[in-house]
Amino acid sequence: MKKIFKLLLIGFMVVLFGCGKEEKKEITISAAASLKEVMNEIILEFEKENKDIKININLGGSGALKNQIISGAPVDIVFFASQKDLKDLDEKGMIEKNYNEDILKNRMVIVGKEKINDLSEIKNHKIAIGTPETVPAGKYAKEVLNNSNLWNEVQNNIVFSKDVRSAMQYVEIDEVDYAFIYKTDAKIMKNGIISFIVPETLHKPIIYSYGIIKDKNSKEVIKFYEFLKSEYSQSLYEKYNFEIANK
After folding, report:
1. HEC string for 90-111
2. Which of 33, 47, 49, 214 is the most exposed place for a label (fewest CB within 10 A)?
3. What does pLDDT average to over the chain?
4. What angle do CA 6, 12, 15 make, to 5 degrees?
5. What is the pLDDT of residues 147-163, one digit of tens each?
6. Listing from the earlier edge strand, what are the strands of the sheet with 108-112?
7. What does DSSP assign to residue 163?
8. Residue 191 in contact with residue 133, Cβ under 8 Å?
9. Complete edge-to-edge strand list for the sheet that includes strand 243-244
10. Comparing C-alpha atoms, which of 165, 206, 211, 156 is closest to residue 188?
């Protein structure tokens, strides 16, 4: 009898203390691959300040992330390297009205192993760009090549990648001679240099937009949304060569 009572007491204590332990609130953000390093730092600081919240991050090409969300992927916040991808979700009624805005600016560069003085010098070289249909950096790269009357001349030499980081890696492992990537990605490149800074007149402005998914505006999600545009986060964006959109 004593043994049964002891087991019941242990079971009661497990239930009592188990119920008293509050589970962390989990938030999932889908973010452009070019945000990887800065998002890791932001999340680390946010979780340090908010020990009851855990942030999960899903990185990739903005167009691919958008399509995942349209297909029902469980996401709370999106952070795209493209105004259009956020606008597409907004037009489908999938973004909270009061929680979406432009936040960052970036620049397009060509990276390789040596400098070039003119865009035309990439002709007859193997080039990596993100797949234009799903990767904003690839879309901007195609726009640059079209506006420079080079697309038809280089098209057969292009290697398409799943995101901007993959395009950069093709240069680092010598699979291609040049790649169109963001200035921010070039900062973390280990085996290559900025060969050419693309004039901004050759493409639309590179604007990053973010927002909360419809009906996901819990107090915890809003807290993280606000933290993403805080002075602390802005200092980290600038550390990684991003520009603040509204400055």
Report:
1. HHCCCEEEEEEEEEEEECEEEE
2. 49
3. 91
4. 145
5. 999 999 999 999 999 99
6. 158-161, 127-130, 178-182, 108-112, 193-197
7. S
8. no
9. 53-60, 25-32, 77-80, 206-213, 95-106, 243-244
10. 165
